[in-house]
Backbone:
């Protein structure tokens, strides 16, 4: 399991400090949510913030574009330092073209799917993906409760990946915390995006260590 703390839950007045916590806690990625107020009702980070984070961390930046017409913004986010970019299945008309642009820009290409979108719709595009980001909450806000149906969805996606014989990573985002991370990993998830459970904890660094331990444990 790889751990990707979500900057959306961090102290927005001290994102550089949040990056330091991620590095001290052994995070593998830093998750960066982009919201446009249209595809989702909220607004979040823009291109200058991503560029500033990129200058201040050695960790790969995992960008989740919750935006309409992501092709308009893609080039700027790639130039700002995105190492991975996920666009929403529900927001893209010409997905193959956009995935090719992400890879041509030097980043890994991902597709995010909302809780109500069946993973079986991805069957034709999986060979051109590096990862799938399964939303385990409805996108747009941090701090939501985990939707347990995401576990079966991860299992179905894992089976589909194995049947096709492709190398595609499964990530999950939304409501993951100490009491469900073992179930998430057991369902086949490779990357856990965790926000509030890390940054709202009294000791985020210790919490990251605990999450890793609980993800591995057979007894919790």
Residues:
């Amino acid at each position: 399991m790889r751990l990707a703390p979500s900057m959306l839950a961090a102290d927005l007045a001290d994102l550089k400090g949040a990056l330091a916590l991620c590095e001290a806690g052994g995070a593998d990625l830093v998750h960066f949510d982009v919201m446009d107020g249209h595809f989702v009702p909220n607004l979040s980070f823009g291109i200058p913030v991503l560029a500033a984070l990129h200058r201040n961390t050695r960790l790969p930046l995992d960008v989740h574009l919750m935006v309409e017409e992501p092709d308009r913004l893609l080039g700027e986010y790639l130039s700002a330092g995105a190492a991975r970019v996920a666009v929403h299945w529900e927001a893209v008309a010409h997905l193959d073209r956009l995935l090719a642009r992400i890879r041509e820009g030097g980043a890994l290409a991902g597709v995010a799917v909302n809780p109500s979108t069946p993973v079986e719709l991805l069957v034709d595009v999986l060979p051109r993906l590096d990862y799938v980001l399964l939303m385990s909450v409805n996108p747009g806000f941090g701090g939501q409760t985990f939707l347990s149906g995401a576990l079966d969805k991860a299992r179905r996606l894992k089976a589909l990946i194995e049947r096709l014989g492709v190398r595609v990573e499964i990530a999950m985002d939304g409501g993951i915390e100490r009491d469900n991370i073992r179930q998430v990993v057991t369902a086949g998830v490779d990357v856990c995006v965790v926000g509030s459970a890390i940054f709202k904890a009294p000791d985020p660094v210790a919490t990251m260590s605990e999450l890793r331990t609980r993800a591995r444990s057979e007894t919790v």
About this structure: The helical segments are 15-24, 47-55, 74-80, 95-104, 149-164, 181-186, 196-199, 204-216.
